[in-house]
């Protein structure tokens, strides 16, 4: 995966950190201090679409599914910049009754992006 | 990717200025977390939580303190179940003897022990039951009363009593004696059953090695 640099147009991972204190959520979320809601952005020109090694395994299946269903997604001939590696977000927070709850939310943090 | 007067290349929506884009992303993050936690809105706490409780939760979140062995290879732990030798000659007083053989070289440390017994009562009756733990005297002389519990047995069936440190010490020394005496009017037949299918037993969690081994480490 490629991390976005200023000015790059290629499919990349854009880091975006949500500070719980900034949004006023630090009183009920104990840990962590924030959430790395990274996202994928940028273009996938044809010569990059389906580049082996980056996203092929994960998205080959999706593409075949789309082909099989002849979904519109492929008619444009483009491909999408999508997450290829994701991690859970582990939260420790107070619920309504002031119980301390620990939860692992799967697939919340994007670690890498690729062209489908 | 902001472009002058352009559109978002992938969804076609007109590009936002950076401040509105940031607002949108923050809102998206909030919604995403609340959805995954199945919450319609952020919880507001009804009452404060002590810092000690918070500290304990944080320690648990971080896993065992550094330097401690993982549970798997700490001193070996196992469970002993000892079925009672029962003396039911007197229906109003049941004496149970439990024997624990210590086959391990390092001695055994009882972590927890509970007594299980089957009580049989006529329907819709309750009986107070006095449970006495007897331990041998200092020079292995006759038994002395160590602790006493009063239970309210309110139904027929299996009942459990968690045994205290005195009983646990007796188990680790190999022999525990318990006396069960129903209180109230004299019963026509025994409250405590002792035949094979309902024999009282003690289940004890044991750690091999006990304290001195730790010291040696």
Give a short overview.
By secondary structure, chain A is mostly beta strands. Chain A is built from 1 helix and 7 strands; from the N terminus they run βββββαββ.
Describe this structure in words.
Helices cover 12% and strands 39% of the residues of chain A. Residues 51-55 and 68-76 of chain A have low confidence and may be disordered. In chain A, strands 3-6-7 form a 3-stranded antiparallel sheet. Chain A has a two-stranded antiparallel ribbon with strand order 1-5. A two-stranded antiparallel sheet of chain A has the order 2-4. Chain A has 1 helix and 7 strands. Chain A is elongated, with a radius of gyration of 18 Å. Chain A has one helix at residues 56-69; strands spanning 12-14, 17-19, 29-31, 34-36, 39-41, 81-94, 100-115. The two termini of chain A are 12 Å apart. Chain A is mainly beta. The longest helix of chain A is centred in the middle third of the chain and has 14 residues, at 56-69. In chain B, strand 5 and strand 6 (143-153) form a beta hairpin. Chain B is an alpha+beta fold and 217 residues long. In chain B, the strands form 2 sheets. Chain B has a 5-stranded antiparallel sheet. A 4-stranded antiparallel sheet of chain B has the order 1-9-4-7, covered by helices on one side. Helix content of chain B is 21%, strand content 35%. Classes of the chains: A mainly beta (116), B alpha+beta (217). The interface between A and B is medium-sized, with 32 and 26 residues.
């Amino acid at each position: 995966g490629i991390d976005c640099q200023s000015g790059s147009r290629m499919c990349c991972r854009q880091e975006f950190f949500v500070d719980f204190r900034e949004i006023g959520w630090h009183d009920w979320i104990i840990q962590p201090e924030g959430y790395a809601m990274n996202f994928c952005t940028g273009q996938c020109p044809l010569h990059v679409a389906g580049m082996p090694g980056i996203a092929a395994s994960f998205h080959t299946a999706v593409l075949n599914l789309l082909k099989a269903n002849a979904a519109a997604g492929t008619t444009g001939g483009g491909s999408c910049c999508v997450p290829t590696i994701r991690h859970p977000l582990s939260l420790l927070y107070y619920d309504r009754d002031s119980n301390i709850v620990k939860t692992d939310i799967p697939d919340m943090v994007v670690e890498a992006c690729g062209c489908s | 990717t902001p472009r002058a007067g352009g559109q978002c290349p992938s969804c076609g929506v007109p590009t936002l200025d950076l401040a509105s884009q940031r607002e949108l992303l923050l809102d998206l993050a909030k919604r995403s977390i609340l959805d995954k936690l199945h919450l319609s809105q952020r919880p507001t706490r009804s009452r404060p939580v002590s810092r000690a409780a918070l500290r304990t939760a944080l320690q648990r979140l971080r896993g065992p303190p550094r330097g401690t062995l993982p549970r798997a290879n700490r001193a070996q732990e196992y469970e002993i179940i000892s079925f009672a030798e029962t003396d039911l000659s007197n229906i109003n007083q049941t004496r149970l003897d439990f024997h624990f053989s210590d086959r391990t070289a390092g001695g055994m440390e009882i972590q927890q022990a509970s007594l299980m017994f089957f009580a049989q009562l006529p329907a819709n009756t309750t009986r107070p039951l006095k449970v006495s733990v007897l331990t041998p005297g200092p020079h292995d002389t006759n038994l002395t009363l160590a602790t006493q519990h009063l239970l309210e047995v309110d139904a027929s069936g299996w009942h459990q009593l968690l045994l205290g440190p005195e009983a646990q010490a007796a188990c680790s020394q190999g022999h525990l004696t318990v006396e069960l005496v129903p209180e109230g009017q004299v019963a026509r037949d025994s409250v405590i059953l002792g035949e094979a299918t309902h024999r009282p037993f003690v289940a004890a969690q044991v750690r091999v090695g006990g304290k001195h081994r730790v010291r040696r480490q």
